[in-house]
Amino acid sequence: MKVFNLRRTVGMALLGAIAFVLMFVEFPIIPIAPFLKIDFSDIPVLLGLVIYGPWEAVGITFLKCLIHALVYGMSLPELIGVSSSFIASCALIFPFYFALKKKNGSQRSKFILGIILGTLSLTIIESLLDWLVVLPLYMDVLGMKLTISLPSLVMMGVVPFNLIKGILIGVVFWIIAGRMRGWLSKQV
Questions:
Q1: How far apart are the C-alpha atoms of 120 and 100, rounded to whole Å?
Q2: What's its job (predicted)?
């Protein structure tokens, strides 16, 4: 039992470290909101979800965010961003988990359902969070000024960003998981 727990802990730590490194590969996609950037750090988190389960995937997410906060500092703007990243990852984890654990349907249909539910969850949660908490906090803390109204920024920037992000992360994860199917089945 101790070997299993050690192996699990090391695997989760490695996935968290890989997720942290992938946070460096980021790029903006919505010109109206260039501060919103896509990264692929949720791919190792979703792999952890398949291998270990939803709460372990939350732990991997926490680890990547903790390392990021420790490396970049614990300033208030950094903590706002890393907290939003944590919530965004969790918004993907649970819908994916419930879709993949669904009893009926092929693996393909479960992945498609996971991508759809994860994307919708991510978009709704992050849009509300950005509208009600994150963007107002950034405006107060950083003195950030908007050139359009906050609801317009959310509808024209945050919503399309999260729709694209959810679909992109989901499809890339589906491709990677498909290529790793043999290895993943041995891990589960």
A1: 16
A2: Probably a riboflavin-binding protein that interacts with the energy-coupling factor (ECF) ABC-transporter complex.
